[in-house]
Amino acid sequence: MTDITIALSKGRIFDDTAPLLAAAGIIAQDDPEASRKLILSTNRANVRLVIVRASDVPTYVQYGAADLGIAGKDVLLEHGGDGLYQPLDLNIARCRMMVAVPDGFDYESAVRQGARLRIATKYLQTAREHFADKGVHVDLIKLYGSMELAPLVGLADAIVDLVSTGSTLKANYLHAVEEIMPISSRLIINQAALKLKRKAIQPILNAFSNAIKN
Ligand code: PRT
Ligand code: MG
Known about the structure:
Layout lengths: L3 E5 L3 H12 L15 E3 L5 E5 L5 H6 L5 E5 H7 L4 E6 L5 E8 L4 H6 L4 E5 L2 H11 L3 E5 L15 E6 L3 H5 L2 E10 L1 E6 H6 L1 H14 L3
Parallel strand pairs: 1-3, 1-4, 7-8, 7-9
Antiparallel strand pairs: 2-3, 4-11, 5-11, 6-9, 6-10
Helix pairs in contact: 1-8
The structure holds phosphoribosyl ATP (PRT) and magnesium ion.
EC number: 2.4.2.17
Protein name: ATP phosphoribosyltransferase
Subunit structure: Heteromultimer composed of HisG and HisZ subunits.
């Protein structure tokens, strides 16, 4: 039997992927929230899950350390997608990539006046492309998390971050001024694995495809 390794992150991606895996007849034997194991076996002897940081999923799949993975579009855009086949939008872990500013900051007029904006974000590629398309000059400041803090302490004028309920922005006196794009997670497949392990991978792909909610 062909061995299959699937990379995913714990938290919302694992939670939303579990029903899709179940539809493919794959059930994890440990709960990644409860267990410290990074390799989870499943009810299928030839299928295992590896639990990695969300932003590391494409790297594991690119190098073939995992055959399949589940990653957000946000993460895939930053990674670039080299060596990855991206056949399915799973429509899970949905949110929106937004520009947000502190309450009281007039973003529209700053843009109109051609001000140079300082933008804090984890998503440099996406932010760079967005502001270049708009013709807005920006200085990008790379952060690894808690972007919402940056404008509050004078590190940046605005942030580019993911928003789902909007409560994190609200709690930090920020509001969204622009949607960059809707985000959801995709199934990614190592291109070589897809050729060499097609017989084992295709049924998983089909089951995922049939189980996707719109
Ligand atoms: O947490 P860690 O640093 O390990 O990595 P991560 O934040 O990239 O991973 P994780 O598991 O939090 O997110 C995995 C994927 O879920 C992301 O790559 C997105 O594709 C997707 N996703 C969906 C989200 C959100 N919704 C989301 N709301 N990822 C992050 N958030 C954060 C957002 O950055 C902000 O800080 O939640 C906060 C806003 O939430 P609301 O509900 O207050 O608007
Ligand atoms: Mg997170």
